[in-house]
Amino acid sequence: MPLAVDIRKTFESAERRFTLDVSFKASTQRVVLFGPSGAGKTLTLQAIAGLLRPDEGKITLNGDALFDSARGVDLRPQARRVGYLFQDYALFPHLNVRQNIGFGLQQGWLNPRARIAHPQVDYWLDALELRSVAGNHPAQLSGGQKQRVALARALVAQPRLLLLDEPFSALDSVLRQRMRRELSDLQTRLDIPMVLITHDPDDVAAFGDQVVQATDGCVRENQPFTGYVRSER
Amino acid sequence: MQQAWIPLLLSLKVAGWATALNLVFGVAAGFGLSRWRSGARDVIDSLLMLPLVMPPTVLGYYLLVLLGRRGVIGAWLDRFDIQLVFTWQGAVIASTVVAFPLVLKSARAAFEAVDPQLERAARTLGVSETAVFFRVTLPLAARGILAGGLLAFARALGEFGATLMIAGNLPGRTQTLSVAVYSAVQAGDDGTANFLVLVTSVTCVAILLLAGRLVPQHTLLASR
């Protein structure tokens, strides 16, 4: 996958100072960002999506610079065409499933109508078995359904890259295994590059064609992977 | 008795305009304050909240100084032959200023309660910043804004001090409900006073019932 990230950002508050230092090149379609919480994984995803502005560095996707402090490039998140699956899914609570999925298909100041009929929306409703809850609001959905809606919403816009923030952490273990398989199949079918962040070694086993390690703000691909295999110490 | 409807209709007209204006300016100011990160924010916030604590007559005096013929704004408006003192439009401005903090405070709190993650999600889906505001932020804050709007309407309906200072007490033209009650009592016209008070009370109860009906439904919707 032609994603290269090389950025730095320092956060300073009265209590502490945190430096995010990210440098990795993705060489496969499935990259897992692995590390404990608070290590800077979400910040890294936000920087790739354009939701966080690094102090300096460069982010390129398929050869296009998304961010390049040296050349003054900083594409807005709207222009990056990067799909983002948020940890809590961030579904729009005032819109039903159809409207959530169709959100990115409609520009302008109005939300899609409650019965929006768009081939893309219908395709994803069927593909992710959401047809029966199409008119429901997010509060009426189960955890697995919420995740599928969030996934459909991100994929409908045909992003060039899919970012997933702890996609399975809100699910129980049975559902977690099933959604892992579904996501894996979907990724293979669409052949969309993705970066998934997790602190769960099982996710690493399922998606970690390439593992990038995050430790205390330092995100590197070539650090020895110690968290999963060598736990006997 | 027939004449009692005139101040009621005038009051409803004035309060309606004042609420509409506040839904634009109060919401805009509330949104600005909720997003603005600066040390000056608290100072601006305090200044904008002043109408809530200042005596309405003092506010009315300020408005008179500003909008009167020799006032800074009044002199300028006079060149276009626009006069606000002793007109119902002047009463609208008085009610708007007095009720402004109620909308501002509700709107600001409502905007601050909107999960920023949802706005981020909308951005990654490619919609413009303006569209994010109208499609995500505003609908999710609507409940709080609506509650503020109803409070502002009720406050504007009961406005007395500032209205009297700038619009006066011209029966049929600027005499609003609360001013009419005062006039009737001053004139010893108990019948009219009783009737006006009854009309006012019924109107206020109706507004509160309406508010109670509107707000909880939106509460359910937004908290989902």
From TrEMBL, chain B:
Membrane topology: Multi-pass membrane protein
Pfam families cross-referenced by the UniProt entry: BPD_transp_1
UniProt keyword annotation of Nucleotide-binding present: no
Keyword DNA-binding among UniProt keywords: no
Molecular functions per Gene Ontology: molybdate ion transmembrane transporter activity
UniProt subcellular location: Cell inner membrane; Cell membrane
Source superkingdom: Bacteria
Keywords linked to the UniProt accession: Cell inner membrane, Cell membrane, Membrane, Molybdenum, Transmembrane, Transmembrane helix, Transport
Transmembrane stretches, start-end: 14-34, 46-65, 85-104, 195-215
Gene Ontology CC: plasma membrane
Domain annotation ABC transmembrane type-1: ranges: 8-211
Principal cellular location given in the protein's record: membrane
Family of this protein: Belongs to the binding-protein-dependent transport system permease family. CysTW subfamily.
NCBIfam families: modB_ABC
Task of the protein: Part of the binding-protein-dependent transport system for molybdenum; probably responsible for the translocation of the substrate across the membrane.
PANTHER family: MOLYBDENUM TRANSPORT SYSTEM PERMEASE PROTEIN MODB
Protein name as it appears in the record: Molybdenum transport system permease
UniProt organism field: Paraburkholderia terricola
